[in-house]
Amino acid sequence: MKKLMLIGLAALGLALLAAPSEAGLLHRNRDCGGSPACDVPCANVVWEEREVTAYRVETKSRTVEREVRTPVTREVEVPYTWYETVSVTTPEKRKVQYCETQTHEVPYTYKVSVPVVTPEKRKVTTYRTETHEVPYTYKVCVPVVKPEKRMVTTWTCVTEQVPCQVAVCRPVTYTVVDPCTGCCHTVCCKVTEMQTVMKSVVRSVPSQQEVTVNVCHYEEQERKGTRTVCETVPVPGEVTVNVCRYEEQERKGTRLVCENVIKTREIEVNVVSCKQVEHKGTRKQLVCEWETKKMPFVETYCVTVPYQTKVRVAVAVAAPCAPVEMCATPCETGRRHRLCGK
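and the corresponding structure tokens:
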């Protein structure tokens, strides 16, 4: 952008230098009216096209080689050491204590409960059941049949003759002439006709009549009777019973007593211990390294290119000045004229 601005300013400066020096005094002479006090001749401006050289920026691309660092992995063998824990069994003699149980008889005294049966007389009450008849009153429902007259409806079947239409098929014969041979032959066919026939229809006709029916009613009647009642009666008496009591008796005997005795003996045991065994070997390991190599890249750059173009330039042309009296009017009081300088 800076290059473009510089190129534009240069073109504008060339256009201004190409115009004659009198073009800049055009407005001053016009305002002063061509007075000799301005000391500048009058002039006119004419615009004309001129071919000038300008510059523009163009974008181009090119292929260049650059150094690029890329990671490269390779497999190498690296020595290393590892330790393995191995169990070692060593026989050793050790003294251990163990417990042994011994039994022996010990006299002791103990008490037992012995049952003793003693006959005793005691008063007891027994119960016996006695039965006797007791009169009571009860009610029963007795059916009573009474004749009553009631109106009933009876249905009587009446047969009637009703006309109805029935489809009847009958054979009909007629003569047909064969169109090919001209022979006549008789043809029999069935014709369906509707005929009126009488059929019997049975319908029910209601009729009412008075009949006598037996109506059953239940009436309560009180009756008397006897029933057997059981009654428990206590009976006092005296009986002899055997009473069992327990008495303690002291007895002597012997019993086996178990006693634990601690003894010492020497045994051989296998002591397992662990020790580390060193091993050496190699293992494969991936190593990452940086490799520098040149690779082609396409880069874009800007170039300033000159070109010919046409621009409009102001050119001063000499013209007759105005009468002197036009500038005789003094300028504003106390201020210099902005074009004449007075």
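(Above: one complete record from the training split.) Residues 19 and 339 are 20 Å apart (CA to CA).
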